[in-house]
Amino acid sequence: MILQPRPRWTQEQQLELLNWHPLFTGRCPQCGAEYKPNYTSSVHWDCPNPECGWMDDTV
Ligand SMILES: [Zn+2]
Q1: How far is the CA of 10 from the centre of ligand 1 (A)?
Q2: Could you tell me the pTM of the whole model?
Q3: Interval between CA 11 and ligand 1 midpoint (Å)
Q4: Ion ligand 1: protein residues whose beta carbon lies under 5 Å
Q5: 20 vs 1, 3, 5, 26, 58, CA distance in Å?
Q6: CA dist 50 → 29, 35, 41, 44 (Å)
Q7: Rounded mean pLDDT, 18-22
Q8: What is the DSSP letter of 25?
Q9: What is the whole-number distance in angstroms between the Cα of residue 32 and the centre of ligand 1?
Q10: Over the stretch 35-56, which tens digit does the pLDDT of each residue have?
Q11: Which of 9, 17, 21, 25 has the maximal Cβ count within 10 Å?
Q12: How far is the CA of 18 from the centre of ligand 1 (A)?
């Protein structure tokens, strides 16, 4: 039996997340804007570029 804290995603989807999510890439997946290093203290990963408006809906 495998215990998973949040069975929301399959393992495959979680691995995919590593490829595009700004938490791991440091960049907005939509416009490529760089997240500031101190952005990691934020709970949400909304894009720092106001013209982009990308919002993280995974958390
Ligand atoms: Zn963006």
Answers
A1: 26
A2: 0.65
A3: 26
A4: 28, 30-31, 33, 47, 49, 52, 54
A5: 29, 25, 22, 9, 12
A6: 14, 12, 19, 15
A7: 90
A8: H
A9: 6
A10: 887 655 556 788 989 999 998 8
A11: 21
A12: 17
Please enumerate, as own/partner, the contacts of 37-42 that have beta carbons within 8 Å and a separation of 24 or more.
none
* Residue recorded with tokens 């934020």: 42
Q: Report d(CA 52, CA 47) in Å as an integer.
A: 7
Whole-Å CA distances, 7 to 11, 17, 20: 9, 14, 20
Distance of CA 50 from the midpoint of ligand 1 (Å): 8
Q: How many angstroms separate the alpha carbon of residue 43 from the centre of ligand 1?
A: 17
How far is ligand 1, taken at its centre, from the CA of residue 34, in Å?
Answer: 8
**What distance in Å separates the CA atoms of residue 20 and residue 3, rounded to the nearest whole number?**
25
